[in-house]
């Protein structure tokens, strides 16, 4: 049968002349032009609408692909093929299967819906709605889609996006998630180049470390898979779980490098820290997850319970096995301040060259001041009445604390000092040299870490005498000249 550029042959045929309808039976062969051929067991052809219905071992070929199905509709006017009971399309790169689908011959475009599966030696794609171009290998999906790497089992999930099956470059714009061996990356928009091992994400980014108890957030990120590095900016924050509590560290830029066993986290420019019982700020932080050491640089400050801690450099050490804070080192120009229990204008103060502290249950339990140690303390009785103010100087001083309040003081070497009645305290004794109260800089809640200094904050001088009253019991003085044996905290120096 010849009809407007199509040639159909078969073993048996029925022709309905009035309806212009043709039935073909056995070894049906249809050829359109020089490029499209189809074979099947049976076929119906409507010459008026130019519709072909083929069934039984249907195989259709064009220069870019081979389609096989049990039943296939061919609209010669629109040059469209469609099926509703599964088909398989093979091209030079991929094998595509789905339950429902349309194939547009002019555009080389395949639209598949319901149980869509694209397979090649390097990946497996599963989707609910996919547009695929057989000549270019480009695919666009509009429903839940998962792409799995056949070699390393990395996965990508998204509900809308683009994927080049030949170059392995993809871009996802709805509920995008990238599942790597040691990380998962989520974002409103996600770009991934599998061959380069590079991914970038924008807006509402969450990067979860599946090895360490650690995740990062931000609004723009770049991930270099082969170099094990992650770069995050725009509200970048690192979140670490410490003893069932979250520590948030924010900076203008967050850089995570190295494999899990050697991972380094660098946070720099306008860094702020928030934990329920510990807050801080500095210019930059360097954290080694393998050793649990975090180093704070350039004008660092910590607030632990009622205490303000400052120095040229501050080190926080976490026990990597228990994931609890273990110790603290304040190096050079170390200073610890706290408000007097019943006065907003008076401050208990400790300073020295270096200060070493030990945590217990994530709270500072002991402090050792080493070198040029000085202290000013307001001594109150059990009724809270101020009895005296002590100014002491010693080479080394050890303190024990409970719930942020100093219990005892031990002067490890000879001391000199003086105790003053409240009415006769000289102004020059009231504050140690270098004292600054910086409560106005303290993040009081997690969202405060994103507020830059100067935004919605008053100056230090304006708030020096303000703030809540923090209870502080009078310390018990122990003028022991020397201790027998080294104290354990001294080993941390």
User: Radius of gyration in whole Å, from Cα?
Assistant: 37 Å
Put simply, the count of helices is: 2
Shape: rod-shaped
Summarize the amount of helix as a percent range.
under 10%
Q: Provide the residue-averaged pLDDT.
A: 85
Which percent band covers the strand fraction? over 45%
Low-confidence stretches: 457-493
Helix- and strand-based class?
mainly beta
Question: How many strand elements?
Answer: 38
Most strands sheet: 38 strands, mixed
Q: For the terminal residues, how far apart are their CA atoms? A: 96 Å
What would your notes on this structure say?
2% of the residues lie in helices and 63% in strands. The chain contains two helices and 38 strands. It has a 38-stranded mixed β-sheet that branches. Strand 31 and strand 32 form a beta hairpin. The radius of gyration is 37 Å and the shape is rod-shaped.
